[in-house]
Amino acid sequence: MRLLLRAAFIAAVFLALAACGTEEPAPGTPEPSGTQRIVFVDPRFDVWSVQGDGGNPERITSGGFGESRESGTSVSLRPQQAQSVRYTWPTWSPDGRFVALSRTPGSGNALAGLVLFDTKEGTERRLHETRPGSVPLVAGGAPHYALWSPASEFLSFVAPRGPGQGLGLFAVRPDDSEPYEVSANAPLYHVWSPDGRYILVHRRGQLLLHDTRDRSTLDLDADSLRYRVPAFSPDGDRIAYVVEEGGTGRLVTSNLDGTDRVVLMDVPGEAAFAWSPAGGHVAVARKPLGRLFYGELHVVDDDGSGDARLIAPHRMAAFYWSPDGKRIARAAFDGTLRWEVVDPATGVIAHLEEFIPTPDFLTHLQFFDQFAPSHLVWSADSTKLAFAGVLDRSESPQVWVVDAVSNGDPRPVAEGRLAFWVPSPGE
What we know:
This protein folds into two domains: 1-186 and 359-427, no CATH class; 191-313, 6 Propeller (Neuraminidase), CATH 2.120.10. 6% of the residues lie in helices and 42% in strands.
C-alpha cells in the first residue's frame, strides 16, 4: 500500500465536511449475518469480536488471547490497566484461525509491531518491528497493511523496511518461517490470485507478477500511474490493469503474462476498478487527475464487448461488490457521505444512511480498492454492511450494521473506531 503524503490533507477535508443461536451453515453456504462475527477496535484500542446481531462479545487483546472476557447481548467497556499498548487493524485469515494485528508500540524501542495471533494454539508471534528512524505509518493510523492469500497459506504485508529505507512488501507463511521481501519502494499495492500462488504488485508505475513457489518476479511491461490496485478475474485466468496508450489510459485485461490484451474502457484521468466476484463484469469509477472524489460508477463486460454502462451517477468516495456479485455498496458524496446499494443489473439504487466515518474508517474509504479484500465491509451472505462512525454529530463513534436488502434501521452493536466482518469459512 502506498504511503500517501497527502492523506492527512484528505482526512482534514473529510472531517471538515463532517463538522459542518442459529444452526451451523452447511459447507459452502455463507454464514448468516446474525451469527457471522464482526471484529472491531474499541475506543481504547483493544480488539474484540461480536456477532452481527450484537451477541456474544469476546475480547481478543488484553488479558490473554482467546479468553472470553464478557458475554451477553452488548459490549460493556471497562478501563484497561495498561493504556500504553494499542492494537489496531485486525486482519482475520479466511480459514478463521489467525489474526494479524498492528501493535503500538512494539517490543523494546520499536515504534510498532505486526503480530500474529493463533486462535487454535493461543499463541502470538511477532512478524515485523518498525524501528526508530523508519517510516512510522503506511497510511493514516495504520502502521502496516496486511492481506491474506485466499486459502490462508500466506500473509502478505506492507511495512517499513528499516531506518531510511522506505516501505517494502513482504510475504510469510503463518508457521515458523521468516518473512521474505517481495518488492520495495512505495507506492505499493497488491492482490493475491484466487489459487494463492501469485501476487500481482503495482509498484510505483510498474506492474509485477510474483510467483510464491520459486519467488521469481515478472515485469509485465505495463507501466501506469492512473490506478492503484490491479485485479484478478474470479477464476484466476486473467488480470485487469491500466496501460498508457496514445497519451491516455486504458483499462485492459490480459493473460497473466500480459499477452492477449483486451481494452475495456478509456481512463482519461485515474480509475479504481473491481471484478465482480461472480465474474463477467468489472465495476469502474474514474476521476480527473488529482481530484479527491471519484465520479460516476460504471459496469463493463469483462470480455470487452459492449459499452460501459452507467449504473450510479454523482460522486463517491468508495465502492464494494457484494460477495455474491449481485449488488454494489458505495459511499456516495454530495456534501455528506451516504451509503447506497446499487443493483448493477437494473441500475436501481437504494439510498441508505448518511454517516460520518471515524478517522480510522476514513483511511479504509481512502484506500478502499486495497482494503476491500482484506477488511470486509459486506457480510458473507451479502445482506449487511458494517462500518465504524456516527450517524449524528452528537453521538460517540459506534460499530454499525446496516441492512442492505430491506433497508431497515441501522443497528449499533458496540462502541468502536474500526470494524469489519470476520471472514466466513463457508464462503
